[in-house]
């Protein structure tokens, strides 16, 4: 099994704290940011950053649906880590200042991919697909915090 990784980033015209707070708000804001690839969104515990337990289904392709139950931690300032209880998938959100009134939001997801030919295709195509999904989410995040 090979490690599969997908990373997407965006410069947002809002302070890093405002961007981070929007991402960490699983109770209200996060659901508004999710593109159509996400369904069955539900906060099961917490709702604001560290200690949140959130569920969703992620449909990366027409045939590939991942049932995610994510535990959220904040290991350092400006960072959220979502660890899936149902798989090896870990998503890290990092928000840093990027000049006056601007921030850089980076989302990186990694998981243990399949072996063999299926693993080759997963490692080749999954990062691009997930990148497009997260790019759409970051665009919605920017629209939300730049209001």
Write the layout of secondary structure elements.
Blueprint: E1 3-12, H1 16-24, H2 29-33, E2 38-45, E3 53-59, E4 65-73, E5 79-84, E6 90-97, E7 103-112, H3 116-145
Antiparallel strand pairs: 1-7, 2-3, 3-4, 4-5, 5-6, 6-7
Helix pairs in contact: 1-3
Description:
This protein is of the alpha+beta class and 147 residues long. A hairpin with a 5-residue loop joins β3 and β4. It has helices at residues 16-24, 29-33, 116-145, and strands at residues 3-12, 38-45, 53-59, 65-73, 79-84, 90-97, 103-112. It is globular. 30% of the residues lie in helices and 39% in strands. It starts with a strand and ends with a helix. 24% of the residues are buried. The model has no long low-confidence stretch (mean pLDDT 92). The chain has 3 helices and 7 strands; from the N terminus they run βααββββββα. A 7-stranded antiparallel beta sheet has the order 1-7-6-5-4-3-2. α1 packs across α3.
């Amino acid at each position: 099994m090979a490690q599969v990784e997908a990373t997407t980033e965006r410069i947002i015209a809002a302070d890093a704290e405002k961007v981070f707070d929007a991402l960490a708000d699983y109770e209200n804001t996060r659901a508004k940011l999710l593109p159509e690839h996400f369904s069955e969104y539900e906060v099961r515990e917490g709702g604001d950053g560290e200690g949140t337990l959130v569920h969703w289904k992620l449909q990366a392709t027409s045939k590939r649906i991942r049932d995610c139950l994510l535990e959220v931690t904040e290991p350092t300032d400006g960072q959220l880590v979502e660890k899936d209880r149902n798989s090896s998938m870990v998503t890290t959100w990092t928000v840093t200042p990027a000049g006056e009134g601007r921030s850089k939001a980076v989302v990186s997801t990694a998981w243990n991919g399949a072996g063999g030919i299926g693993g080759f295709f997963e490692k080749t195509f999954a990062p691009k697909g997930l990148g497009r999904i997260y790019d759409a989410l970051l665009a919605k995040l920017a629209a939300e915090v730049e209001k």
